[in-house]
Write a structure and sequence with these properties.
Elements (H helix, E strand, L loop, with lengths): L3 E2 L11 E5 L3 E5 L13 H11 L3 E8 L5 E9 L4 E2 L6 E2 L4 H14 L9 H4 L15 H5 L23 H5 L19 H15 L3 H10 L23 E2 L2 E2 L13 E2 L1 H13 L5 H10 L4 E5 L2 E8 L4 E7 L1 E2 L3 H17 L1
Helix pairs in contact: 1-10, 2-9
Amino acid sequence: MTIKNTAKVLFTLSMLLLTSCGGSSSSKNIDTDPDGTILPTSIEEILENAVDKGVDGIFVYIDQTDKLNQSYVAGLQDKVNMLPANENSLFKIASISKLFIAVSTTKLIAEGQLSLNDTLAYWLPEIAGRIANSNTITIAHMLQHRSGIADFDSQSGFDWQNAHTDIDKTLLYAFDKPADFTPDSKYEYSNTNYLLLGKILDRLLGYHHQEYVREQILVPLEMYDTYAELTDVDQSLLVKGYWGNIDRSEQDYAIPGGSMISTVKDIATFIRALNTGTLLTPAEKDIYSSVYWFGHSGWLPGYQSIARYDNKIDAVVIQFINTTGDNSEDIASTSYEQILNLLRQ
């Protein structure tokens, strides 16, 4: 297995300590989990372990202040052609896309074009009768996943085995369903919220909201390897994603809040700017911090991702894995936590 590290200087990582024992003998103090499992001592080892445990490829980017930004990869991004994972390859970022909608909505609210208190029925009156409580569900509720609107992907008939490219057809799965709860009475994640926010932004702007994302986020941050949808990219540059050992890279998903394509480096740039940069003005950050998160994870068939910022060590850590199913989600979670633990030492 090959690990490619594009930086010239490695992070300073904790090494196993050698201690004297008696006159001339020595032993190693080895860090272990509570169950006795020996913990990895390098990012490379963490990635190697993930591949050994069953994921096809793993892509990591670390941006930590006062250190060189670094990419790490292991495994394969194309099993048929035996292509090794490449940190510059494109990847379906799935629900990390929701951060871009949340930022765009925040900016439009700060500009006075939207209000957090605007209702769903006000902006999309033509569907008001098909979603319970549409007269009281607000922009804020949808941003916060506190609307009570049914999640379309949890409904009978919706199948992740299929492509999903028709926004209005996908929305039908959420129509005419009882509310999951009274708006603002609890939190429950629903992809329908961000599909509807995408439609609201399109109506407000008079053009596709992804053009606003490009103008207000991608271009200023020089995120030239980030795209709105699968149809916008050269698919030969896209990492193959495997679900049930079947390549799902051509299985399109064009639904707002889950459609975007990017690289580990571009997403690291975005997460850094969102958390500590100038992407949001102070006024915008006040709004944003009241309605959404500053990091996210994502899942689509064959693709899972984590993008977060750790303020204790001032580090952005992005992780992509091109495998879903079996125990790959647990492997992804464990690998990410192990990376953070190493960086915190």
